[in-house]
Amino acid sequence: MMTLEEFEGLGAREREDQSGRKGRIRVCQAAGCASCGSDKVLAALKEKLQAAGLEQDYEAKGVGCMGLCSEAPLVTMEPGEVLVGRVTPEDAEELVRNLQQGTPPTKRLPEMPFFTRQHKIALEHCGVVDPERIQDYLARGGYSGLYKALTEMTPLEVVQEITASGLRGRGGGGYPTGLKWGTVHKAAGEIKYVICNADEGDPGAFMDRSVLESDPHRILEGMAIAGYAVGAGTGYIYVRAEYPLAIKTLRTAIRQAERQKILGTGIFGSSHSFQIELRIGAGAFVCGEETALIASIEGNRGQPRNRPPYPAVAGLFGCPTLINNVETFANVPAIMREGADWFASVGTEKSKGTKVFALAGSINNTGLVEVPMGTTLRELILEIGGGCPGGKSVKAVQTGGPSGGCIPAEKLDTPVDYESLMALGSMMGSGGMIVMDETTSMIEVARFFMDFCRSESCGKCVPCRVGTQQMYTVLDRICEGQGSSEDLELLERLCETVRNTSLCGLGKSAPNPIMSTMRYFREEYTERIRQPESVGTR
Amino acid sequence: MLTQAKRPAPPTDDKRWRIVDATMRRQSYRPAALIETLHTAQEVFGFLDDDTLRYVAGSLGLPLGKVFGVATFYHHFQLKPKGAHSCVVCLGTACYMKNATGIVKMIGEEAGIAPGETTPDGKLSLMVARCIGACSLAPGVVADGEVLPRPTLDDVRALVKRWLSE
After folding, report:
1. Global pTM?
2. Domains of chain A, start order
3. Cys-Cys with A453: which of A446, A468, B20, B33 at CB 3.0–4.6 Å?
4. What is the arithmetic mean of pLDDT over A18-22?
């Protein structure tokens, strides 16, 4: 077994190299900034540093997501953590001069609640480490959680640590992570699996993509810790085909970790082995449901099946399987490193820790934020998100994707935690938050989501397959000004039936967008039925 | 699982079949390799034709119906050749709010195609996606594999017109 000194030596050279420099400039290379040309910015900066003979003193490096995607491409400068937005390759010369002289760049972003109000755990390294270099992760204490688990703890102690932290599933359901780990740990079976659900299908959610692109080793570490805790030798990451950069980054990360003997047979020279394989999704929303995802890894159509048995007992290839979301795994290394009490000190009584949200829609600061559980929607949208552009007022917030609901502006003081959102008829979901302003028609939003659900229904059970289609037809009729008052009753009955009788979460939650808009914006429905000429207000 | 002797020969002597074979071999020709194999085949040939589906079915020892079922279940797999240019319009919630449906409609009018179709001259394929995770750059439009940063309706129109006149 590798000694502690040997382990710490893995990141030592990188640490020395970093502390030997006067400063550095980090350029986001994640998907959002990349499509705004951040690769050219990085190349220009490297060139200018070299031309000025400064490449020994200052380093220009590519990193992951810094969060404020509306100001893409983003750059941070050290020392001082100066953030610069909407950078072009032409700015490189000035930025290099700023670095050297310690002067503020013209495009410097002011200090704003968007950054000061965040509390980063899952995203702690995003926008800081180079996702393509394992040394950078190691230099920042990466894989020390795995090392600690393997050298100081029994698998059961790891499960107990996660249980004590109060971590709950970040994919939406909020099931206690420790409880899930414990079930798989106890399940009988020679072969067990760990699966990372990176099939982030909710429209409007992009935090998992960001973590995978920005800090892939964190997910590998979280999975390896889970593998040790539950007794699994193989892990699968099921990632969407729509995320090509995340796939590429993960491939590189897995290869590097194997070469360092952090993954594969004999981790850190111990008797424990854990290998990770990638599986690429093929564009089916329902595969975010755990049993459908397992069917897909097995090479089948992604159709869910009845539970029980739960995957923890009989999952992939019939073996006990632990399946967690990307963000859940992203929290694990920090919990192992800092301890359960530290994690549990953040958040609310029932929802511990932080949650990453993707702010999008009619909002000034679009991007990713990580805040303690219990932060109110008002703080998130008006303070951190900066409200709606053009002075418009917030009408509703959509959380939880097609499974969630629309929360009206008068409920903005609700704290964001699993129970509070559920009580409003929405749900946490994976963390997508779409802001709608006064110009948005809520019936059309409901129709949009029903169009999504009818197209993504896998077709296995009748209530979902037929029900979503029927609900869409009725909504479409109302939207086009041909609805009658009986349609509202019919819609309500359909919602009840589909919710109560569908096989999986997709069908069970498909009525949520309709039910929540009917609950809070009923007058829009009755108005549209009474006055068909109001069609096309949006 | 079939033994070496019973596995079918590739439909053509195209060398690219070796890449497809390699994917199946890496997973010991297990039926679970199906989706991975279809991914590889689509990557190297651009789409999945009947011969490909038949060959994959034969190699993995699966009924053709099952392979066809899987290939048609997932949106990502294409059974028809794609156009010279491809345009994917994201219809996620954030993009919906920034008038992505208007972009689909505009392309439909300019090129005369609906989502999932290719122009008869093979110049352009139009596809829609359910969220490409680029919500902050909404509306999300992927032109020949590149995500356009915050495109306007007129930006996309100009691009489509250029492609169609090539």
Report:
1. 0.96
2. 21-111 (3.40.30.10), 141-344 (3.40.50.11540), 354-437 (3.10.20.600), 442-534 (1.20.1440.230)
3. A468
4. 90
